[in-house]
Amino acid sequence: MTHTPFQLVRQLLARGNRVHATTRAPSPGLDALASKPGPGALTVRTCDVASPASVNAWAADLAADLAAEPLALVIHNAGVAKWADLESTTAEDMVDVFRVNTVGAVLTMQALLKVGAVGQAGAPPAVAAFMTSKMGSVADNGSGGSYVYRASKAALNAVVKSLSIDLAPRGVTATLLHPGWVATDMTGNKGLIDVETSASGLLGVLEAGAAGALDLRGTWHDYKQEAIPW
């Protein structure tokens, strides 16, 4: 599979982690990983972040599986793209993409907090990492266009900055990740790096944060551990 999230799951499993993966539609690739013996363990659930009912049901099922062991790491990767230009951008496009890219992140954190999967009193510190895009950077926008996608990611960035402040007292570090220009289906298989490089780099960012070498609190880094301008 040519997707960074799938590679993140593979590499986390290879490190011996217990991984709870979420997918909107059935994923034969994830199912195959779940049945494959290895150092880690994988559970796959379905969830549509555009649906509050689906998010709440997923979180409740996840919490029942977690029991008294909260999550140490949340990677929120759900996202869609529409590349409409100024003349062709519609209200429906804006709403549909915002519902997934921006609102979905808020609903996910609300649900996880509600069921106690993160942010419990006395729980070990946790990290909530949100996959954004450099196209959501206002400072980096030198080419214009892509109104729908840019705006949804800029809004996500603002959401995560607020989460980083509001979740800090609960022991949760909220941070933003940029995977780089990765060759995937979404980019027409055009890009500067492959999914393996992107995934390993992103995990390196999180590991550097855990080691104290990188400040992840309300910050934004790419797969090379370089800060991205807002």
Can you characterise this structure?
The chain has helices at residues 4-14, 28-35, 52-66, 91-114, 147-166, 195-210; strands spanning 18-23, 41-46, 73-76, 126-131, 172-178, 220-222. With 230 residues, it is α/β, with parallel strands linked by helices. The chain has a single domain, classed as NAD(P)-binding Rossmann-like Domain (Rossmann fold, 3-Layer(aba) Sandwich). The strands form 2 sheets. The chain has a 4-stranded parallel beta sheet with strand order 3-4-5-6. It has a two-stranded parallel sheet with strand order 1-2. α4 (91-114) links the parallel β3 and β4. The two termini are 31 Å apart.
The run of helices and strands is HEHEHEHEHEHE
- Overall pLDDT confidence: 93
Number of domains: 1
How many DSSP-defined strands? 6
The global form is: globular
Strand coverage percent: 5-15%
Rg calc: 17 Å
CATH 4th-level superfamily: NAD(P)-binding Rossmann-like Domain
N-C termini distance: 31 Å
Helix amount: 40-55%
Total of DSSP H or I helical runs spanning 4+ residues: 6
Order of neighbouring strands in the sheet with most strands = 3-4-5-6
Identify the CATH class.
Answer: Alpha Beta
CATH architecture: 3-Layer(aba) Sandwich
Q: List low-confidence stretches.
A: none
Structural class: alpha/beta
CATH fold field value: Rossmann fold
Keyphrases for this structure?
Rossmann fold; 230 residues; 6 helices; alpha/beta; 14% strand; 4-stranded parallel beta sheet; two-stranded parallel ribbon
